[in-house]
Amino acid sequence: MTTTYADGRAVISGLSDTDINQIFDCGQCFRFDPSPRGGIEGIAGGHYAHFTQNAPDTLEIECERDDIPFWTRFLSLDVDYSAVKADISSRFGGDTIAAAIKAGAGIRILRQDAWETLISFIISQNNNIPRIKKLIAALSERCGERLGDELYAFPTPKAVCDLGEDGLFALKTGFRAGYIFDCASRVLDGRLDLEAAAKLDTPALLAKLCEVRGIGPKVASCAALFGFNRTEAFPIDVWVKRVLAKYYPDGLDIAKLGAYAGIAQQYLFYYERYNVK
DNA sequence: GGCCAGGAGTAAA
DNA sequence: TTTACTCATGGC
């Protein structure tokens, strides 16, 4: 993998197992969308980037020069996904996981901000992806830092807390308003110390996250997987339940799926959710 | 107009 | 320990 930078654009070549359309459209993030001028654009970590991929092994990132390490890490470009796939395949067996890996061959699990994933997946509960995106965009526009024309950073815990439960409800978050407020309050006053939480082992992390009102096993698992880089976390939502019932009627021992269970889960989710056969 | 959406809290059995 | 109901909202 080699990176060059010129004219506000990083060009990363020598890639494998990478497809930005799959990465940004597999339900793991909610602030990246197709750009009117082609490619995919969005905001993370308070920075805007625009991605284009004209070849399987080459990615162009329009971003600040100083942000290249951030985006490289964000995209998990340092992770050897051929090894990940081999490990998953050796543990699952069967045609289903092979087909799912093939269907989502370019998926990479993003390393997102823990706080952002917590709020995003609280919003996701009993909701659909387009509306989740709308609500997060509305929240960011309402109280996130303005980065440019129509561009807003994801808001800080304090900014969300200052909105109050009423302000959050006014954004049409519905019954989730109180959940979002509780989470923001806890992060703000230190009852939920995200830096300390990041040092816990995964079971302890999940238990800690579940102290927040409105965070249960599924939301906690998504935050752990997408926001704390816990690739062994295995979120079970309606789609994954569907996959498990359909292809693994005799049950699947998730504990035996190893360090990349969460990545396997993402292949399966993508396979079933987007009906990629 | 009922059903569903990357669920979780609550009460009841 | 599971099961049924409820929670706002919007697309279909």
Characteristic terms for this protein:
277 residues; alpha+beta; 6-stranded antiparallel beta sheet; 8 strands; 13% strand
What is this entry, summarized?
With 277 residues, this protein is an alpha+beta fold. It has 13 helices and eight strands. A hairpin with a 2-residue loop joins strand 7 and strand 8.
Annotation field: number of helices: 13
Instruction: Indicate the structural class.
Output: alpha+beta
* Poorly predicted runs: none
The count of strands amounts to: 8
Main beta-sheet annotation: 6 strands, antiparallel
Mean pLDDT: 96
Shape: globular
How would you describe the overall organization of this protein?
- By secondary structure, the chain is α+β, with helices and mostly antiparallel strands.
- Helix content is 48%, strand content 13%.
- The chain has 13 helices and eight strands.
- The strands form two sheets. Strands 1-2-6-5-4-3 form a six-stranded antiparallel sheet.
- Strand 3 and strand 4 form a beta hairpin.
- The longest helix is centred in the middle third of the chain and has 17 residues.
- The chain binds a DNA duplex (13 and 12 nucleotides) through helix 6, helix 7, helix 11 and helix 12.
